[in-house]
């Protein structure tokens, strides 16, 4: 499957090939898989999954829109801004252990070579032109506007050491420095 075959969470795959009877057929698709980290996926057997659709996107720029909610995942695609969105995946989460949890992460990988990284045949070039992420759940932390702390008014606080040092006598200055030393010692220890 590429980076991790026993992933934990949701994965959306865009494989170009479909393996039938040990033979590889060129058949681009988009499919979704859910895993709790216990299943190990094999790209020659498990892709495309039963959740998805076949769609020929090869050699074209494809815009993909993924909408993830706690109980559903929707994936749509289109080739240009003027094209209507085409529904590729509409998955309803029915098993509670696969519920989409908050504070997740997005991982993107492209597997275009067989095991060992040796390219035997020509493979497709895959490029990610841009990525835009929008959190539609404004109740989740992270969407709050950053706030600057209120400035503190240092001048209005009492300064006992400064008040003692106002008197220019040598004894007052020595007393102030001893107080400063003791205060610093208490803060450090």
From TrEMBL:
Stretches the record annotates as Disordered: 139-169
InterPro entries registered for this protein in UniProt: ConA-like_dom_sf (IPR013320)
Biased composition (Basic and acidic residues): 154-169
Origin: domain of life: Eukaryota
Stated name of the protein: Uncharacterized protein
């Amino acid at each position: 499957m590429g980076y991790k075959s026993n992933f934990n969470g949701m994965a959306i795959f865009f494989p170009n090939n479909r393996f039938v009877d040990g033979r590889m057929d060129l058949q681009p698709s988009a499919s979704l898989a859910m895993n709790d980290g216990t299943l190990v996926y094999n790209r020659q057997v498990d892709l495309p999954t039963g959740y998805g659709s076949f769609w020929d996107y090869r050699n074209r720029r494809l815009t993909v829109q993924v909408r993830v909610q706690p109980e559903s995942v929707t994936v749509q695609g289109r080739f240009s801004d003027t094209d209507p969105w085409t529904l590729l995946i509409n998955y309803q989460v029915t098993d509670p252990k696969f519920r989409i949890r908050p504070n997740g992460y997005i991982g993107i990988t492209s597997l275009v070579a067989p095991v060992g990284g040796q390219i035997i045949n020509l493979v497709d070039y895959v490029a990610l032109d841009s990525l835009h992420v929008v959190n539609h759940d404004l109740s989740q932390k992270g969407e709050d506007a950053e706030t600057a702390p209120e400035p503190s008014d240092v001048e209005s606080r009492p300064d006992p050491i400064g008040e003692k040092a106002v008197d220019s006598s040598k004894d007052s200055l020595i007393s102030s420095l001893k107080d400063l030393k003791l205060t610093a010692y208490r803060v450090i220890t």
